[in-house]
Design brief:
single chain, mainly alpha, 3 domains, five-stranded mixed β-sheet, two-stranded antiparallel sheet, 24 helices, globular
Length: 611
């Protein structure tokens, strides 16, 4: 792709036999070419190999809830293992329901993660909109590229959870407010509050609090609080609250498809377990002031977590904060709003006693904009400018360094295969051939885009050549990690294979679903991959196990649990529980990890042999 310079004002007559001069790009074509790479790169980073990995973290909750919604045709009362599960709002479940409709109402890893990928694109669009409205197109593009190349963008944009949707609604509401902040517009107020209150059904009330903080800072700085206190804003607020209450009222007045008597179950802390609004208050208000979980982080936790979310740009963010502080008296109104909004968001989440890294995710787009402003000008101090240039140089070297390391590893393993222990020989099929091939392909692509020139076409998209190369180098590194390395390494995460093999074994043994049990606890990761159409009960202890044996004499009964759950059983009892399937072990697994691996055992019928 090459950008032609605009045609000269004075026409030049072509020489005989020569080709006519090509016309330059018009403004619309330039706009497309300047913005298109950002969206294409975002799509590739988010969608590439998206469904390869088995579920991780809390993803299994979303997949299992949606799977059971389709089985029961009840989309208002989420369940896991056909027990009420109201810990999360409904909206992100519904997003996965929508994508799964295109697959015959069957949810899988790709379709479950797709809404988060789309939410990441929406958050990127909101970030660009904020920066473009308050500054200019160059700052907006740079902000978009910086946000795109933060590790947190790809990580949470590729997870089937609610965090990226929460970020998208928060950033979208702020972008909407900024578009109407100088007018008393009912559509402006209504759009803002709808984005806030609908977004609250994604993760929680942080989607309301963060936009209100950003809008409040702007109104304080511009002295527009009374300006926006009018009947239009009040009416829009009431409509937003009404829309927020709709799912709660529907779930309250429509009985659950599974066990309607659970409609009035009281949780251990006195909360009505199936009351959406009661749980929303507990999960947001009560958790904020008197956290009942996630309260093990110190008050300074976000000084650690936020830089982690910004990797590898964290050092640049530190320099940007120092630079903004040094320039505090010369900051423009928009920069003051940005800085105070960041401070307000940071303090809001720090004051809460419940802290987790992903809670502060809504601050990342604003950090990207602050870094863009810093990178678009010279630093306040000479030493900061030198530090910035050194960091950008290190970023530019990432793909080359990665390629050289992989090539070196490939050469060593090719000529000295004996250095690999016998139990690790399985890794030789992954290193170096596939890794080197992938990195080489990416490196060749990079060289094509850079075109080995001092001013390649790619860098015309951004104001600085060196900065553009640094950003592209980081993007290539992230692309390799998220699209190739992590999906390739996921084959050693055997959770999906293990539970599917367990169910295959159960079918071969002709064990009915009602004779499959969990032992001691319910592993939520297992429920989705076991893919049962009825509840899997839990056997709590040895006494219940013996009782079950007496109640179902001569029947085959299967128990699924981690290895460690069976450790306290007497040897005599354990001998009557032969292993029928187990999770594979790898040479690098520690003893503790092996204890956490899953195993399926059969309760041996009396006077029967295992078949």
């Amino acid at each position: 792709m090459k950008f032609n310079r605009p045609a000269q004002q004075t026409p030049v007559q072509p020489q005989t036999g020569s080709e006519p001069e090509k016309p330059g790009l018009n403004d619309k074509q330039k706009k497309i070419l300047f913005w298109l790479p950002l969206w294409l790169c975002a799509a590739l980073l988010l969608i590439g190999n998206l469904g390869v990995e088995p579920v991780k973290g809390s993803e299994s909750r979303w997949l299992e809830v949606v799977r059971e919604m389709f089985l029961t045709n009840d989309f208002l009362h989420p369940t896991i293992n056909f027990d009420p599960y109201y810990d999360k709002p409904l909206l992100t479940y519904w997003f996965i329901v929508l994508t799964s409709l295109f697959n015959g109402r069957v949810v899988n890893e790709f379709l479950a993660r797709l809404p988060s990928a789309l939410a990441a694109v929406a958050a990127l669009m909101a970030t660009v909109s904020i920066a473009k409205r308050l500054w200019n197109a160059e700052i907006a593009r740079l902000s978009g590229w910086l946000f795109l190349t933060c590790y947190s963008f790809a990580w949470w944009g590729r997870l089937a959870e609610a965090d990226m949707a929460n970020l998208a609604f928060s950033a979208g509401a702020i972008a909407w407010y900024l578009a109407f902040r100088k007018t008393k517009s009912f559509p402006g107020y209504l759009g803002f509050f709808l984005l806030c209150f609908i977004g609250a059904h994604a993760k929680g009330m942080a989607a309301i609090a963060v936009p209100l903080l950003a809008a409040g800072v702007d109104m304080l700085l511009a002295k527009r609080i009374l300006f926006h206190l009018n009947w239009k804003s009040v009416l829009a607020l009431l409509i937003g609250i009404g829309v927020y209450m709709i799912p709660f009222e529907l779930s309250k007045h429509i009985a659950p498809a599974i066990a309607p008597e659970t409609q009035n179950i009281i949780d251990a802390d006195g909360t009505l377990k199936t009351s959406g609004i009661a749980l929303a208050l507990r999960e947001n208000i009560i958790r904020f002031f008197a956290p009942f979980d996630h309260n093990d982080e110190p008050f300074y936790a976000y000084f650690i977590h936020l830089p982690r979310l910004l990797l590898p740009w964290s050092p640049i963010m530190i320099l940007a904060v120092i630079d903004a502080f040094r320039r505090r008296k010369q900051l423009q109104e928009t920069e003051r709003w940005l800085c105070w909004t960041l401070i307000a968001i940071f303090l809001f989440f720090s004051i809460s006693g419940s802290r987790r890294p992903y809670y502060i995710l809504p601050a990342v787009p604003f950090c990207a904009i602050l870094m863009a402003l810093y990178l678009s000008r010279e630093s306040f101090d000479r030493w900061m400018e030198k530090t910035k240039q050194i960091l950008l140089l290190l970023f530019r070297s990432l793909p080359v360094a990665g390629l050289l390391l992989c090539a070196l590893a490939g050469i060593v393993l090719k000529f000295f295969p004996g250095i690999v222990p016998a139990e690790y020989k399985m890794l030789l099929r992954l290193v170096p051939q596939s890794t080197v091939a992938a990195l080489a392909a990416v490196f060749i692509l990079g060289m094509f885009l850079f075109h080995l020139r001092s001013e390649p076409p790619f860098t015309e998209i951004l104001p600085d050549v060196k900065l553009a190369k640094s950003i592209f180098s980081i993007y290539i590194s992230l692309l390799v990690v998220f699209v190739y390395v992590i999906p390739t390494a996921s084959q050693f995460r055997t959770i999906r294979y293990t539970f599917r093999q367990m169910m295959l074994r159960a079918e071969q043994m002709r064990v009915p679903d009602e004779n499959i049990y969990f032992y001691q606890s319910e592993p939520r990761d297992a429920v989705y991959y076991l893919n049962r159409k009825s509840r899997i009960s839990v056997i709590a202890d040895k006494e219940e196990l013996e009782k079950l044996r007496r109640e179902k004499p001569g029947q085959r009964i299967l128990l699924i649990a981690q290895n460690r759950k069976f450790e306290n059983l007497p040897a005599e009892t354990l001998n009557r529980l032969p292993v029928t399937a187990r999770e594979p072990n790898f040479p690098w697994d520690s003893r503790e990890n092996i204890r956490k691996n899953y195993v399926m055992r059969m309760i041996l019928p009396v006077n029967k042999k295992v078949q």
